[in-house]
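LOG
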Amino acid sequence: VSVEQQCWEEIEQQVCQDSGTIKKNPEDYPYLQAVLMETLRLYPPAISTTRSLEKELILDGIPVPKGTYLYIPIWMIQRDSKNFPEPLAFRPERWAVQDQQPSAGGGWELRDPPSELGNAQAWVPFSAGARSCVGQRFAMHELTLALAVLVLSLVHMCSGTCCSPCRSVRSSHH
């Protein structure tokens, strides 16, 4: 089953039959969240960041003095095969697992912690630690709902002559 199909199936589970609107709780969309996490792993909003050391650091046995600026290559960290096997492959399953007994959420749940398919601590599109993005939770909330609305709208407006991924999603559900 394609990523598009999995997204649609999860969203379809959350559509209110009376109004046609979607549920607004991002936790109801674990597979969509996994898709977003994988997208942000491959295409982070910032490709790098810097930090100034507040105290001396020993890095691989080498002392790095206080006040030194460290360059943190987010793009490279998140595409390193030591952190994510098959680092260029788009695999939302790094972040979510399909339930053995599917629930109302489309049958997926976020992995906690993520699997051997990736190092969760190397996922830093919003940076990490005390200087991480304060809006990360809000951004993920909004991105999840925006993606749900976008996919729902796309499937509803597609006709029989549209792109093949859209046609395959639509034909399996209508």
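LOG (cont.) second protein
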Amino acid sequence: EKTADNLRKQRIEALSGAAESATAQFQYKRALAHYQSAAALTDGEKDITEWAGIQNDIGWLLHLDRRHAEQEALMRRVVEACAMAGKAEDHVALAAHNLWAFALDFTGRHSEAETEYRSLLSTHTHRLGPDHPSVLSLRHNLANAMDQQGKHAEAEKEHRAVLAIRERVLGYEN
């Protein structure tokens, strides 16, 4: 059984690699087929992290292909499945949550995106610290969501705060 599972994992790895190569060539339909084949080899009930990781790859591909409504629905399901499995704060679940917020923003649901970005920001700041690049990226996305809602002053303040941290951490030239 261990050999069969190793072979399955190697197939997933190869299919994911093929999908990444197809994506690099902007062959999104072919990439999606590879990811879907990899996803068929996973089981969210046996290994939620493995399953969610492939779903995240599909979600990012849908974003690249500008299929944001599909991305939003998929990522919402992944976030919900991870929560049901007690893995809501697992790194793969947090990545799915971020992709979901991103999709909400791209589908014009900026208020919902803001709520999700704030939730993620709280978790990421606690885990990674306020100066971590992932935290700063979330703050940037949060500011964009606020800006899209007409909260321009608040968005500007957030963008400037992110810039100040980046300049302090990386230096003014970077």
